[in-house]
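Forum: Protein Structure Q&A
Topic: Joint prediction for protein chains with partners

I've read a bunch of threads here and the consensus seems to be that you should model interacting components together rather than docking separate models afterwards. I'd like to see that in practice. Below is the full input, 187 residues plus whatever partners are listed. Could one of the regulars post the assembled result?
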Amino acid sequence: MKRNEALAIVEPQLRTARFEHTVRVTDTALELGRRFGGNLEKAELAAIFHDYAKYRNIREMKRWILSESLPKDLLQYHHELWHGPVGALLVEREVGLNDREILSAIRWHTTGKAHMSQLDKLIFLADYMEPGRSFPGVEEVREVAKNNLEKACLLASRNTIMHLMNKGQSIYPDTFHCYNHLVRELS
Ligand code: DGI
Ligand code: FE
Ligand code: FE
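Posted by a regular:
Agreed with the consensus. Here's the joint model:
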């Protein structure tokens, strides 16, 4: 599938600002892929579809989680986390894209996980640091992302966890697994 074809499928699924975020994530993922290696065609498609399910309603996402083989523990956590796994499912079902590596990157883009593939890391980091983001600490992540993909992912994961903790929110286990694994990978 070509970039423009994929963008035309995703655009009606998203609001304008989210679509613009998607285009920036795509360009950022390609830039990171050129710098650190990775399949650029897959990175492009994974980025374009990463937020495919972002605006599905909560009841629909809940139904998919209950009826398909998705982890049921997601339902005990914030519904913001659901659009990754549900998105991977719907991109396969509705778009017919069935590349395992692309679906994995979509599935894990919000939480990350232990043992992320190169493609998972590119999408996880591009989503966090695309130029439209203004999280506290994102500048440092962009700086580190000039030469160290794993370290940049670690900082992104750490910042997200600290932000969620400061807000008193619960944290999904894979979010911690992602952080812990990167700490080990880097030591
Ligand atoms: O979909 P986006 O807005 O582009 O970005 P995203 O998919 O990375 O994140 C959506 C939200 O999910 C973001 O506000 C951070 C939050 N998040 C990430 N990991 C966790 C989490 N929220 C909870 N409650 N627990 C997590 O582990
Ligand atoms: Fe997302
Ligand atoms: Fe996103």
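Residues 50-51, 54, 83, 109-110 surround fe (iii) ion (ligand 2) (CB under 6 Å).
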